[in-house]
Design a protein that fits this description.
Distance between the termini: 20 Å
Order of helices and strands: EEEEEE
CATH architecture: Roll
Shape: elongated
Number of helices: 0
Strand content: 35-45%
Largest sheet: 6 strands, antiparallel
Radius of gyration: 15 Å
CATH topology: 10 Kd Chaperonin, Protein Cpn10, Chain O
Number of domains: 1
Number of strands: 6
C-alpha cells in the first residue's frame, strides 16, 4: 500500500496494527478500553540521519518490516481513511520476525 508521505532524515512512517477486539475468554472490548497499538508495519523510510561529516547514516529499517515502537512515540497523521504514525528510527524498539 503506497503512502503520500516521504519522511525526512531518520524518520519512518508506520501503519499501526490493531489489536484483537476480543479477549481470550470471549469478552469484547469497547473502543475506550483498548490500549494504543504498539505494533505496526513500516510504509516509508527516510534517507537516514545526516552525520557531521556530511554522510548519511544507513537506516536499519526497510519498507514492509513489522516493528514494535514506544507507546507514546511519534506523531499521528490522518491520511484518507487511515491513521499513520511518523516516528524517529530511534523510537522503534524492535523488528518483529
Amino acid at each position: 500500500m503506497s503512502v503520500n508521505l516521504k519522511p525526512l532524515g531518520n524518520k519512518v512512517v508506520i501503519e499501526p496494527i490493531d489489536e484483537e477486539e476480543m479477549t481470550a475468554s470471549g469478552i469484547i472490548l469497547p473502543e475506550t478500553a483498548k490500549e494504543k497499538p504498539q505494533k505496526g508495519t513500516v510504509l516509508a523510510v527516510g534517507p537516514g540521519l545526516r552525520l557531521e561529516n556530511g554522510e548519511r547514516q544507513e537506516m536499519s529499517l526497510k519498507v514492509g518490516d513489522k516493528v514494535l515502537y514506544g507507546k507514546y512515540a511519534g506523531t499521528e497523521v490522518k491520511e484518507r481513511d487511515r491513521t499513520l504514525i511518523v516516528i524517529k528510527e530511534d523510537d522503534v524498539l524492535a523488528i518483529i520476525e
